[in-house]
């Protein structure tokens, strides 16, 4: 196993995520954050950045975190809670800042982790159907066509990056299956998590370790 970890040492990774990947001071200042040194208004025992799945991953694999583009409460599509327009925070809007037309970082990541869909599921955003081209503005209000658009965009603008979609536990079945199908179509990796301990819907310390372990296992097995 050590030789596989050695091969990862000089790699960089980035995250396009939601609250599960936030930590105050490690995401853009204007983005909503769930985890912080001060904790949050709901009980959860993650109180150090070192407890996060991505910090644990960086420490164990020796990879470097390049960009953490994560926004608490964000949806992949432009429809948020109570049908509110989330265009300002959606994955398909934010991805352009760091991974596309408006990228702020000149260095491209070796690995891009997508970790979303939780809020789309919780918010009862319209799911829609898989659509692989000719997207219309109305498609971006729905989860599955937006997911397809996102993956297509990331691949075009980051041709040398390894894109890995992380699927949370307990999502709506249509979203989980749709992500799996779209990932196969676009030839990206799709990691469906299992057995993640949570408090108030968010990974606690043990849950973060469980996520890290499953991500690291995927990285090692595919070396």
Explain the overall architecture.
- This protein is an alpha/beta fold.
- The protein has a single domain (12-24, 46-221), classed as SGNH hydrolase (Rossmann fold, 3-Layer(aba) Sandwich).
- Helix content is 34%, strand content 14%.
- The chain contains 7 helices and 7 strands.
- The chain has helices at 2-8, 53-61, 91-99, 118-122, 143-157, 173-186, 205-221; strands at 12-17, 64-70, 111-115, 162-167, 189-192, 198-199, 202-203.
- A 5-stranded parallel β-sheet has the order 2-1-3-4-5, sandwiched between helices. A two-stranded antiparallel sheet has the order 6-7.
- A hairpin with a 2-residue loop joins β6 (198-199) and β7.
- The longest helix is centred in the C-terminal third of the chain and has 17 residues, at 205-221.
- The termini are close together.
- The mean pLDDT is 93.
What would you say about this model in short?
The protein is built from seven helices and seven strands. The chain has helices at 2-8, 53-61, 91-99, 118-122, 143-157, 173-186, 205-221, and strands at residues 12-17, 64-70, 111-115, 162-167, 189-192, 198-199, 202-203. α6 (173-186) links the parallel β4 (162-167) and β5.
């Amino acid at each position: 196993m050590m030789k596989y970890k050695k091969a990862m040492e000089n790699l960089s990774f980035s995250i396009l995520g939601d609250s599960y990947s936030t930590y105050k001071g490690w995401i853009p200042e204007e983005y909503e954050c769930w985890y912080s040194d001060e904790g949050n208004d709901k009980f959860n025992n993650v109180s150090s950045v070192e407890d996060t799945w991505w910090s644990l991953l960086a420490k164990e694999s020796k990879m470097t975190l390049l960009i953490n583009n994560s926004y608490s409460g964000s949806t992949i599509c432009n429809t948020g809670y109570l049908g509110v327009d989330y265009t300002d925070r959606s994955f398909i809007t934010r991805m352009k800042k760091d991974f596309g037309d408006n990228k702020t970082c000149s260095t491209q990541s070796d690995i891009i982790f997508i970790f979303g869909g939780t809020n789309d599921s919780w918010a009862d955003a319209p799911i829609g159907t898989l659509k692989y081209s000719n997207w219309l503005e109305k498609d971006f209000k729905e989860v599955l066509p937006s997911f397809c658009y996102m993956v297509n965009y990331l691949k075009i603008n980051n041709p040398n990056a390894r894109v890995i979609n992380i699927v949370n536990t307990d999502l709506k079945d249509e979203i989980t299956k749709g992500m799996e199908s779209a990932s196969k179509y676009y030839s990206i990796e799709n990691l469906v998590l299992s057995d993640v301990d949570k408090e108030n819907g968010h990974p606690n310390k043990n849950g973060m370790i469980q996520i890290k372990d499953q991500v690291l296992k995927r990285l090692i097995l595919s070396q």
